[in-house]
Amino acid sequence: MQEVCEFLKAAGTYYLATDEGGQPHVRPFGTAHIFDGKLYIQTGKVKAVSRQMHANPRIEICAMHGGRWLRIEASAVLDDRREARVSMLEAYPSLQAMYSPDDGNTEVWYLRNATATFYSFTDAPKSVSF
């Protein structure tokens, strides 16, 4: 999980895919944080991505960095604990201009039953699960 988190942070931007009625939706994300032994992402409750993950928590993430790419298949689980939101916002101070732990909008989700596969053009794929 640590290797996956570090890869996402090094990539800077990764792409998260959700489903809405059979139509995939992909958008850029930038948060990856380990808290309480789980890998978390963050979004706003008012966004379509939140509505989509509430309806269907199965997601995929894809990122590329340094000639390698990563694909993650997982279920997103909402963690409504204040301390989880605080931890994410402390890890990403730039988000504090738009989000706060008690604004009713900030959501943090952790990845459950995740399979992350690292790929490159030169090496065999490497998968890890968490």
What is the helix tally? 3
Q: Mind describing the biggest β-sheet?
A: 8 strands, antiparallel
| Radius of gyration over all CA atoms, rounded | 14 Å
Give the CA-CA distance, first to last residue.
6 Å
> Domains counted in the coordinates: how many?
1
**The CATH fourth-level homologous superfamily:** Electron Transport, Fmn-binding Protein, Chain A
The percentage of residues in β strands lies in over 45%
| Helix-strand topology string | HEEEEHEEHEE
Number of strands: 8
Query: In the CATH hierarchy, what is the architecture at level 2?
Result: Roll
What is the CATH level 1 assignment?
Mainly Beta
**Structural category:** alpha+beta
CATH topology: Pnp Oxidase, Chain A
Uncertain residue segments: none
User: Which of globular, elongated, flat, extended, rod-shaped describes the shape?
Assistant: globular
User: Helical percent range?
Assistant: 10-25%
Arithmetic mean of pLDDT: 98
Write structural notes for this entry.
The structure is a single chain. The chain is of the alpha+beta class. It has a single domain (2-120), classed as Pnp Oxidase, Chain A (Roll). It is built from 3 helices and 8 strands; from the N terminus they run αββββαββαββ. The chain has helices spanning 2-11, 48-55, 82-91; strands at 14-20, 23-29, 33-35, 38-44, 58-65, 68-79, 106-120, 126-129. Strands 1, 2, 3, 4, 5, 6, 7 and 8 form an 8-stranded antiparallel β-sheet that branches. Strand 3 (33-35) and strand 4 form a beta hairpin. The longest helix has 10 residues, at 2-11. The protein is globular and about 45 Å long. The model has no long low-confidence stretch (mean pLDDT 98).
